[in-house]
Amino acid sequence: MKRHTIEPRPDWQHTVEEQGLIYPLTRYPDDSLRPYWDESAYYSFSLPEVEALENVVEELHAMCLAAAEHIVRHDRFADLGITDPKLAALIAESWRRRAEQPSLYGRFDLRYDGDGPAKMLEYNADTPTSLVEAASPQWFWMEERFPGADQWNSLHERLVDAWRRQAELLPSGTVHFAHSETDELGEDLMTVAYLRETAEQAGLDARALSVERIGWDALTERFVDEKLGFIRACFKLYPWEWLVTDEFAPQVLGTYDLGGGSGTTAWIEPLWKMLLSNKALLAVLWELFPEHPNLLPAYLDGPRELAGTGYVAKPLLGREGAGVTLHPVGGEPFAPEPDETYVFQALAPLPDFDGNRVVLGAWVVEDEAAGLGIRESAGLVTDEYARFLPHVIF
């Protein structure tokens, strides 16, 4: 793994916008605009290195499924902050019947510097973003700049194939693709639009819809779109932890389709993904697979021995580093936010490449490793000001 500087292509912003990346710039607190898509540098990997990382990702995914089974079998829902017994029971049933419910993708965030083993930082298996830039613009960038190279990137083909396989689990008719209108940057909009495109290429009838425009027909007791058409299947880029606490949560859970027409609406990702996108998973993994080379020590009841080596406090739920605090030895004491629950993970500072802190986003489609997206940040927490850089395999 190496970082290389390179001259950006002329008119790169227009190029990537045409390829679906309509948010190539990030607005900073000083009101300046700086590249989010950053092709002034790129990373290179060897083929054996990527093959080893693929094996790591698929092993981690299998371990996460084993941890989900453990949580359900041993009724560990309270460790995830899930205290409603009805919700816990429905999640458990969703897990037991997972083979009957469509499930598409997820993204591991990994610490990796090219030397030691990759370390799992977290797993977003419910609403992962940065998909568009990983799947399309960086592939076209490689074809233009390094036509003889390769890339860890089979995302598009695997997503289309996954939709073809998932089709038999979906109710007949239209699949709705929903994002929230509160998305100001357009990232969620374009992620959903891209996934809708892959579904259409797989032969599905797909329709765009915002979460805020989903309606409830009290007469038929079904969710409907703006044209009063029944929503039989819906991909939603809207976290389950929000959905189960919204105004219409009782209707969502009461009509949830566990498969085989057991309900009236099938949701993608399925409800059992709440087991994987909760950061309590990190502590359960360490409990089940202690000393695993691709895991970092993590606990729910406090930092334990990590207080002597440094730790990170992570809220159980949250996106883009929100609420994450770092506590090196001798640093600021931990001060929890009111009504927040945390997992404490060993501090493993992101590797420094020429003053840039890098994290690997490794994609899983169904149960297979499918691609890589790289984000850089100035600080140790990858937040909304991170930059996306392309990569190649030489």
Explain what this protein looks like in three dimensions.
α2 packs across α10 and α6 crosses α7. The model has no long low-confidence stretch (mean pLDDT 96). Helices cover 27% and strands 24% of the residues. The protein is an alpha+beta fold and 394 residues long. 41% of the residues are buried. The protein is built from 10 helices and 21 strands.
The proportion of residues in beta strands is 15-25%
Largest sheet: 6 strands, antiparallel
Low-confidence segments, given as residue ranges, are: none
- Give the strand tally: 21
Structural class assignment: alpha+beta
Q: Please work out how many helical segments DSSP would assign.
A: 10
* Range of helix content: 25-40%
* Spatial separation of the terminal alpha carbons: 10 Å
Shape: globular
Overall mean pLDDT score?
Answer: 96
Computed over alpha carbons, the radius of gyration is 21 Å
In terms of topology, how is this protein built?
Elements lengths: L1 E4 L6 H7 L6 E3 L5 E3 L5 E5 L1 H27 L11 H12 L8 E7 L7 E6 L6 H5 L1 H9 L9 H12 L8 E5 L7 H15 L4 E5 L4 E3 L4 E3 L8 E4 L3 H4 L5 H6 L11 E3 L11 H9 L9 E2 L11 E5 L9 E3 L14 E5 L5 E2 L2 E10 L2 E10 L9 E3 L1 E3 L1
Parallel strand pairs: 4-21, 7-8, 7-11, 11-12
Antiparallel strand pairs: 1-4, 2-3, 5-6, 5-18, 9-10, 13-16, 14-15, 14-16, 17-18, 18-19, 19-20
Helix pairs in contact: 2-10, 6-7
